Amino acid sequence: xxxxxxxxxAVLALAMIFAFAACGKPADNGDKTPQGTEPAGTQSPGASGxxxxxxxxxxxxxxxxxxxxxxxxxxxxxxNRPRQIQPGTELNFLAGNDVPSQLPWNCTSEGWLWSxxxxxxxxxxxxxxxxxxxxxxxxWEHSEDYLTWTFKIREGVKFHDGTICDAPAIxxxxxxxxxxxxxxxxxxxxxSWEAEDDLTFVVKLSAPCAYFExxxxxxxxxxxxxxxxxxxxxxxxxxxxxxxxYYISSYTSxxxxxxxxxxxxxxxxxxxxxxxxxxPIIADENTLTMALMNGDLDGARLRSVEQYYxxxxxxxxxxxxxxxxxxxxxxxxxKKIVEFQKKEVRMAIDRFIxxxxxxxLINDGLGIVGDSIWPVGTPGYVPYDGFYYDxxxxxxxxxxxxxxxxxxxxxxxxxDFAKSQFEAIQDQLSKSGVEITLEIIEAEANFxxxxxxxxxxxxxxxxxxxxxxxxxxxxILKPDALIKQxxxxxxxxxxxxxxxxxxxxxxxxxxxxxxxxHCKQLTVYQQEDFGALAGIQNPGFVAxxxxxxxxxxxTDNIYLQAYYMYV
Length: 567
What we know:
Layout: E1 4-12, E2 16-24, E3 44-45, E4 51-52, E5 65-66, E6 70-72, H1 75-79, E7 86-92, H2 111-117, E8 122-124, E9 132-134, E10 137-142, E11 148-153, H3 167-180, H4 183-186, E12 190-197, E13 200-205, H5 212-216, H6 226-232, E14 246-252, E15 256-261, E16 274-280, H7 285-293, E17 299-302, H8 305-313, E18 319-324, E19 330-332, H9 343-352, H10 355-363, E20 368-369, H11 391-400, E21 409-415, H12 419-431, E22 435-441, H13 443-452, E23 457-459, H14 471-476, H15 488-491, H16 493-507, H17 512-528, E24 532-533, E25 536-537, E26 539-544, E27 552-554, E28 559-560
Parallel strand pairs: 7-16, 21-22
Antiparallel strand pairs: 1-2, 3-4, 5-6, 6-27, 8-9, 10-11, 11-13, 12-13, 14-15, 15-16, 17-26, 18-26, 19-23, 19-24, 20-25, 27-28
């Protein structure tokens, strides 16, 4: 097991220069989790679904709260935030990545950007799907059959360009959404929408959509200024104008995205305080660490366990908080690899992979070994006791179908960001005699392989979130799926039909709870069939200057909710 990490060394010259060199961890590193102990009354999930003590408070004793929807550095600070712009305040927080197109249909995964710039008709308070509140809409109701939804639009809401965000404007904005991404309309059974008057927006569905409220709280249907879209079109960043707490002030490709607080923002709960937010785009990990250490950067999501140790071991004066990342199931492509069409082979692959050892190797044991393909505490989570490491049993399973581990040989492409995890999987499988070769490619190219079905193994989820546990199935299940990952049609058509039937029941359910029953049944089918294997929830770390208060992240992807922050 590798026990090495980088150590930061400071050298003073005209400026501080940082260099990294590998060194061994001390033998007494058992207390190398982030500073502090877990506060009373909060728990984090363990590999078996039972609570563990892995999640800490801050070193100053503030009441950090972490669950499957949010991370709050201090509830006291959060509850007492000023809810007004503080002139002259500025935050520099690491951008998740460059975002060449900031329009909502092109930046769906960049929640750190769009959640601060755009508002939907509704929003999920602190990411909680059971607490949907009005945003642009101040109230709403639905017909008894769930097919007609009527929204009362809050008076005085403006887009960042001054356009009034009333019902007619939303009608036009959705027309552009339909033009840019038709699936954002059809996926939710939207048949028509109209303005009954300036403040009454009516949507009609062709079938009930149990997650319609959650959808309106997400990115799919956020209104964009129709005035800007008329002027610039659906592909021009100058049209990236929403109604959110912040507007995009400037963008320099590969360098920085700057947001400014919107003085005419309308919603007290999300009223911005920090006046200017810079999201610098820093690709190099050493440069990022240097920027945090010398105060050029006020906060960042850390990219590795090594980076956490570099900061904590070298006197970083801010807070470092450990979080747990999203789902990372291992999908097996039974269409690409013929051997995977046998359930015994898929089960044997699971038995040959020691996820606890992988977590220790790449995460220093700070992650969570899953017992489901979805994370503990999220709505789609279903525990399953069939995932475990037992290579002897794996060999027995192969023998039962006349095979040995040596009969399984395949090649797989690997996105560069998952290189270490795949190399660890490769090592685990090779110990049992399974031979796989890896080809490391850029993340952008990996999407093409996924779309074309050219992959063999894939780690990660497609669109899973607490607010949208149904989303992966819309992307991965059906024959014409965007990124097909369920291959039961190849080896078990009867099971595949059951899954399609369950999908139909899920997407036509009338209520969230009813939808969730069918969503979970799809998870059960996939897990018990070993079409996907539970993986590791990798740890995440957030570093932040103590100067800033009211620090809140949603936890599905650790998106900064900048509008809650102040100094």
